[in-house]
Structures are given as C-alpha cells and as structure tokens.
Specification:
Radius of gyration: 18 Å
Shape: globular
CATH architecture of the largest domain: Alpha Horseshoe
Order of helices and strands: HHHHHHHHHHH
Largest sheet: none
Strand content: under 5%
CATH superfamily of the largest domain: Tetratricopeptide repeat domain
Number of helices: 11
Helix content: over 70%
Number of domains: 2
CATH class of the largest domain: Mainly Alpha
Number of strands: 0
CATH topology of the largest domain: Serine Threonine Protein Phosphatase 5, Tetratricopeptide repeat
Amino acid sequence: MLTSSKDSAAEDLLVNAEAAYQGVLGDAQANRDLAAAVVERARAIGANEALVVGLRAVAWAEHVRLDNDKAKRLLDQAVRLAVAHHLDIRLGEVLVSRAAVSHELGRLGAAQDDLDRATPLVGPDRGVEVVLQQAALHQNIGRLTDAAGLYRGVLGRPGCPLDVLVKATNNLALVEVQLGHGSAAIVHIDRAVELATGLGPTLVAMVALLGGVAPVALVQGVAYAQPPRAGPG
C-alpha cells in the first residue's frame, strides 16, 4: 500500500513537472518558482522522472534569463539522473535542451554531440526539436541554405508543437534576412507574430525583437547577427 501511494504521488508530480515545463516555455518568469518547487518535492520523495523533467524546466527558465552557465549545470544533473535510471526518452529531451544551451554558450561541438546522442532517443513526436536545433547550428556557422531547408521541413510537419513552429518560423525569417530575401522575411515575421500570440510573453517577446530589428537590417543592408533561438526545449 505504501509503495502504491508513493507511485501515485510520483505520477501526480510528473504531471505537475510537465505542466511546469510547458509553463516555462510560455512565461519563464511566472513559472520558474513552480518548476523549482516541483524539483524540491521530487527530490524529497525520490520521484526520479519528475525530477528530470523539473530540472529541465528550471534550467530552461535560467536559459531564458540568460544564465546559461546555471542552465548547463542543471541540465548536467538531469542527464546524469536520466542515465542512472534508464529514462531514455527523458534523456533525449534533456540532451536537446542542453544542446541549445551549449549552442548559446558557443560550444558548438558539444551541442552537436548532444544532438547526435539525442536523435535515437527522443520519441517521434519530439524528433522535430532535434531538427530545429540542428537547423540553428547550421545557421550559426553560415550554412544558411541547409538551415532554411530544415526549418521549412519543420514548418511542414503535421502536428508540430506550436512553440517549435514559432521558433522555426522566427528563425527562418532571420535566415531570409541573412540571404537578402526581404519580402520572404517579412512574411515569416508576420506569421511568427501570429503564431506566438497566446503562447505567453517569452515567445512573444522573442518574435517581437526580430520583428523590430529585421526590417531595419533589410533597409540598411546589414545581416542581423543575433544567434538563432533554438530549443527545446
């Protein structure tokens, strides 16, 4: 009976952890404390899967706040836990998030290693996140045609998660700016704004930033150099 009660509590906490992660994607500031509370509770009752998901959520909140070093440390913990408890799908998810953080820290080799490791682990419904991050890596090193092709592939995927769709559309707009395709860039910017509405301030702010800067870059004939946003997470 005690074991059954503990299992039930762990299952309920996993639901809360997943909700916290989704909340962080939409509004990191408002949901960070909720994610941290899930982590604390998961540690207390030994709910390992919930702990991995919760650590990923807190890490992504730190990533949004631009504390990528802290985010990396949290994700390293989550990776170790997932490996130790044979949580393969969760491991794949965390590796994708860590790849995004490593990318923004400038550790492109580490990011690629995590993507390669994650590819066979993530479920088919989340494999699109690996593609998104791979496209961002291509974009960062100047392989713009390759990046654009991957982003368009993401946009064409049935059932693509909305947060991934927003990021892919946003990043494709940036690629079009870099390629000098002004009209196409503006179309994608407008679409990204439309998609982001209702997802929360984090993604809306990200899209609004590009929406304000990219037209200026086009008029002035300069490449907009902000790193492409990846993730997930």
